[in-house]
Automatic annotation (TrEMBL):
Alcohol dehydrogenase-like N-terminal domain span: 37-70
Classification via Pfam families: ADH_N (PF08240)
Keywords, sorted A to Z: Metal-binding, Oxidoreductase, Zinc
Source domain of life: Eukaryota
Protein name: Alcohol dehydrogenase-like N-terminal domain-containing protein
Species this protein is from: Salix udensis
GO molecular function: metal ion binding; oxidoreductase activity, acting on the CH-OH group of donors, NAD or NADP as acceptor
InterPro entries: ADH-like_N, CAD-like, GroES-like_sf
Family: Belongs to the zinc-containing alcohol dehydrogenase family.
């Protein structure tokens, strides 16, 4: 469950790739709260496509880590 902080950010968890090894590890990070024009949905399942693998491994030389693929 996300925890909201006074500066309108949430602490959330996901699986992130931290470097070009492409290995995903549990990761906690902050993101902004949803605004009035945003929609909140519950994600039950998530997949990784081949493009995510290229991005996670920095095959195109543009990845900024950490990255949460999917």
């Amino acid at each position: 469950m996300a925890q909201t902080t006074p500066n309108h950010t949430q602490t959330v968890s996901g699986w992130a790739v931290l470097d070009s090894s492409g290995k995903a590890v549990p990761h906690t990070f902050k993101r902004r709260e949803n605004g009035v024009d945003d929609v909140t949905i519950e994600i039950m399942y998530c997949g990784i496509c081949h493009t995510d693998l290229h991005f996670a491994r920095n095959d195109w030389g543009i990845t900024m880590y950490p990255v949460v693929p999917g």
